[in-house]
């Protein structure tokens, strides 16, 4: 087990290194000059040159690359070219908000998606199955920003249950819950639709297994068969999907964060891209890569918990 | 009733900080986050609007107006200039306090501020102050500015806009790098807190020299999504919002009960610059054909008559030095086709434009494309992301450039930046002369140093006529600034315009309910 984790971490370091190298060069190939983005369209060449020097953009590219990589190794991700604050501080400031939103929608997705998926598989080709299948298709095909605005219109404007924009300075639990409710529902519904489909097909497969037939023949109650015997076996594909999807979810949070005006990684990366904030973009990629690598590792380890037959070597 | 529910709701939502509803102003701004908060570096609309409420200049334009005709004292209580207009002396008030514990403003602070504005290593506006020979403290409360040559509107450079903001020397020196996120000024509101991607909080400056502000707090919230901003306003969570430059926005937001929609000058002027060095645009007949084809009135209808003005001269209407008396090319497809045939293009021409993907600007360009097609002019639009657009048009890569900009409202600024050959893109001293226009260099230069204001106006008028004769560019429309706020919010002044592109929130502003 330990050897497995160490090996995986070794691979992760290589992945991280490759991603960062690619990102470093792609960011610099992008047209658009950070100095112009910062100083605006009336700045003189002299001002622009002075700023480029301050930002360290006047040294040769390989030097910038070496500096950047060296920095990452020792945990110094540089300072944002736009705000002048350390990149890592800016990211850490908004990271909890993104993680909170992602986890909340994940929990919501699982709580809604797994029972519906199971129910749909058990009642295969009956009305509940059709409803669940159409519902999940709808959830998957509905653009997140449209559902976001609809949620706002209904729950915030019509019913006035939740604020349109997060107050940003309410730190009490009830304030936080009110702030996160709609964004979490918005992302959670997409997640639920996804999980429903996977849970359904995994469950269908399990239901056809011999041991299920044996259990039924023994006269075991159907609900016990489903919840005690089948569910656990059907969960492996679900966990895989959730693991894979978590990365996508963090990406999807961009639109949700913007519409619901929540701080987060999504908003940060869009701003950094618009302003050609090279250092910030690099820092964001470090974080995104770390998250994906970590989530994959956790996913792999979770398999063992669900299915003791899986061995790590 | 609905408004009241909104206010109650808002105060519940913001409980803890704003129990004193009625003294807290919530502003919803279009943008994801603050950029630079150093007034000599901040160039974006969303940053300079915020800074507007924290800083003073030596002089200011009367709140609610945007024209230099309304200049009045600010930190300086009186001023005089020498006969040749090259020496200006300003006498300062003695009661202007810096925010925090940085003491009173004196001549040293003013000298420091103006030298900082003129320093290209720090300031984004250094070019505007290039004519300053020296700025000296000639007394504890007296500053003398010596100019190398005459400046069309010296006082205009000293209003709290761009480099004209007066900073506190001790604060800048004490804070160093931190100054760019801890703006210390002298204005009615003081910087209090910044929450990334969320808001900047300002509080009233109790020692403000014009009196303590009636509003106690301002939350300047960053809300990038247009629909969320509008919905937040509708729900009463926001008191004042930045609008979209669209007719439909005005119509929609007007329907929110208790709302005041305000259209402010200066507008952003959209101009189609024609690169006169690239064929077929090197032929004046082709440029004229384009001018005859573009129908401004149609453009105004398209963009919305309440929010748009037709542009006639290359200088926006309302700027000091503007004239409407320029060669015009009334819409005529026939005339355009004739000119094209004469120029040797009976079957039409194809011209190319690099353009931004920003929706507002792109839709204007697409309308231009549709109009040009009628005369057989095929405008190929290559869209690129906004930062790329700015980079490529400055590298002289586009035949046609649609540029929208607002500048200090004196004719010289527009003429010098867009139509003087020194500003030609691709050169050392480039600014934004995308057309390579050199038609009025002499007039523009003479007007800059002309002491007689009548003659100066005449020179500027000549310049505008020559540029239009050469058809260096086709002025299209002016898109006005749009804001909306609750009608219970009284800004303390009639609002017609704002140079800083944000409503004048001053010590007078308050809620009437």
What do the pLDDT scores of chain A average to? Answer: 84
What's the N-to-C terminus distance of chain A?
Answer: 7 Å
**Helical amount of chain B:** 25-40%
Question: Given the C-alpha coordinates, what overall shape of chain B results?
Answer: globular
Structural class of chain A: mainly alpha
Cα-atom radius of gyration of chain B: 24 Å
Please report the number of helical segments of chain B: 14
Q: Count every helix of chain A, treating DSSP H or I runs of 4 or more residues as helices.
A: 12
Q: Sheet with the most strands of chain B?
A: 9 strands, mixed
Could you give a short account of the major beta sheet of chain A? Answer: none
Number of strands of chain B: 19
Largest interface: A-B, 52 and 62 residues
Structure description:
The complex is a heterodimer of chains A (313) and B (513). Chain A is mainly α. Helix content of chain A is 78%, strand content 0%. Chain A is built from 12 helices and no strands. In chain B, helix 7 runs antiparallel to helix 9 (333-342) and helix 13 runs antiparallel to helix 14 (453-470). Chain B is α+β, with helices and mostly antiparallel strands. Chain B contains 14 helices and 19 strands. Chain B starts with a helix and ends with a strand. Chain B has helices at residues 2-13, 45-51, 107-117, 169-175, 226-234, 247-254, 284-293, 296-303, 333-342, 359-374, 386-394, 411-419, 441-449, 453-470; strands spanning 24-29, 59-61, 71-73, 76-81, 87-92, 132-139, 142-147, 189-195, 199-204, 217-222, 240-242, 259-274, 308-310, 349-356, 377-384, 400-405, 473-486, 489-490, 510-511. In chain B, strand 6 (132-139) and strand 7 (142-147) form a beta hairpin. Chains A and B meet through helix 2, helix 3, helix 5, helix 7 and helix 11 of A and helix 1, helix 5 and helix 11 of B.
Write a concise keyword list for the protein shown above:
heterodimer; A: 313 residues; mainly alpha; 0% strand; B: 513 residues; alpha+beta; nine-stranded mixed beta sheet; 19 strands; 23% strand; disordered N terminus
